[in-house]
Amino acid sequence: MTVLVVVIFPYATTASAAAEHVRQMEGDLAPDPGSLAVVSCDDEGEYWITTNHPGDADAGRASLWFLLLNAMVLVPSADSLGDIGGRTLATTLARAGIDPPFQTALRQGLGPDTSALFLLLDGAPGDGALDALRRFAGTVHMAQLAAGAETLLAQALGAAREHVGPAVGAARAAAADVPRPRHL
Asked: What's the angle, vertex CA 78, arms to CA 48 and CA 44, rounded to 5?
């Protein structure tokens, strides 16, 4: 059972500090390096995503991060999904185990000058581990991902592509470490 834990912080740099803390922890929240991602939103509303994929990392985790972060952060933030595209994406995310309240909390919580720590864990963390994250003044959200979540996320992105082709293209460029032009 894969559990997605997202902790949303009120400052753009807090998730990075929390990620360093998690990397040093033992127990429930001591993930392998590929199971952790940081999303920061700067004051202009630009998203910055950091993941780690050491050479021996599970390639499936890397692709799951790509799908999750695109479907949950980048595509919805493009503001170009119509009603049908938005409902299709939300429904498919729900089938993957990410229910509408979780989606709403992420959309509302991750705005300019905020950040979020994303963790993929093999089981639900204990209360002590969650308290360690709350000390950074974050709001914790958890979802148990459905079997086949990666396939469902790929379908969600495929369905959304017709509504937000440019956003998906920008997300792919970012994932490939291709620099995007900055708006001045």
From this structure: 50
Give, for 174, the enclosing helix (H) or strand (E). Answer: helix 165-175
Mean pLDDT by 10-residue block, N- to C-terminus, for the chain (184 residues)?
89 91 72 81 88 64 75 70 72 86 88 91 80 83 86 73 52 47 46
Whether 18 contacts 9, CB under 8 Å: yes
Domain extents in the chain: 3-175
| Residue 102 CB contacts under 8 Å (≥ 6 apart), including other chains | 6, 141, 143
Give the bridge partners for 144, in sequence order: 3
Structure tokens at 144: 């148990």
* 47-52: long-range contacts, CB 8 A cutoff, minimum separation 24: 47/73, 47/74, 47/77, 49/73, 49/174, 50/16, 50/19
Question: CB-based contacts of 12: which residues, under 8 Å, 6+ apart?
Answer: 40, 41, 42, 43, 113, 114, 115
User: How would you classify residue 156: left for phi > 0, otherwise alpha for psi between -120 and 50, otherwise beta?
Assistant: alpha
Structure confidence at residue 56 (pLDDT): 56
